[in-house]
């Protein structure tokens, strides 16, 4: 019942969607000044608080949420309370959770002035720490990493809010005999990036960085994909992107030559047209593009590969591969498709800032693309989600015109029940999932999975491929919204 079942239908990213000739109006700049970006930013962060597991702090702003998962880890005599539910169910998946933390940390680093201006930096720090505190528990034992709490098949048999869930909190781990390079490396990346955010807290930052180093060594020394999160989070892209991603964050956090050597001599990189929880190559390439570093024995230049990502996405280059809907939205596949919208917007703004700082452009063959074009496209993508689309409707719950009322989300669609209430799982779907009515609890700030390739969207919780939100859709939206709130006029193209 989850949007992330789209993973079962995914082809390898190299099989990009055929390029189409776009309607002319899809290429026009988005209208400026039409949205309250500060309000959207605040609400986007609040959604992450709705996804918290564990004992909630007194300042949790989602009042219909309560404590949950307080015995997580008990089956192995370890404390695994805390962390985030990834989407609309009650499972904690290690790979998307760690990616959410990594991208939140990057947001805090790349958009610090904008978040400070919006008075949201502290909230982003709190969101990161809620994730890293949990991940530190997951990595508490040497050469072992707890990577999932909750059996999704059992969890999906009951439509129940996390506070009243009945399914056993089954634990999943990776170790020397059961490797999981993707999850170990992504968690290392989360720790390394977050260690830079929390440098003002030397003890905590050092603990994060030490765990990052150990996990990266483990990921590199015990290589193999972990399929325990399939069919919900199957890593179709393999683990080379996570190894490069983790090494990149460790290099940025330490500047140690050992990580530079891995990046330049051991890491594998590739030009792709997607940035997501599964595929991190473009993120690493953007981060490394200003260091004049190469991989593959000098054959692969990260600046060139970052440019290739841009050229594959932008519809006005000869190299574009990514399908754009008639209304102008990136569409790679149904099921949490808006992660590609927010992820591309994030990378485009970060990369445009770097290019402006270094006086460079993107090169698509002989065509030079100015940084301003990247900013314009990023703004158009975010504006689409906020309401500048053929439906004239917002895809952010509680924001803008005609915002969604039926997110595919157990907690939001189920009324607050008394503690200890015995939910009848057999009747739960008929009581709270099936009725065609607004959710009793507003899932403020949740960004829906989004419309289909024809800009069509039906606001029904049963329509999970389009109405289920995910933490990493929102984590990647925070930076672009902060930039739009603080310097919106600068993000309008001047070409």
TrEMBL record:
Gene Ontology biological process: cellulose catabolic process
Gene: LOC101775037
Signal peptide interval: 1-26
The organism's place on the tree of life at top rank: Eukaryota
Residue span, Glycoside hydrolase family domain: 37-479
Organism expressing this protein natively: Setaria italica (Foxtail millet)
PANTHER family given in the database record: ENDO-1,4-BETA-GLUCANASE
Active site residues of this protein: 408
One Pfam family named in its UniProt record: Glyco_hydro_9
Keyword line: Carbohydrate metabolism, Cellulose degradation, Glycosidase, Hydrolase, Polysaccharide degradation, Signal
Catalytic activity: Endohydrolysis of (1->4)-beta-D-glucosidic linkages in cellulose, lichenin and cereal beta-D-glucans
Protein name (record): Endoglucanase
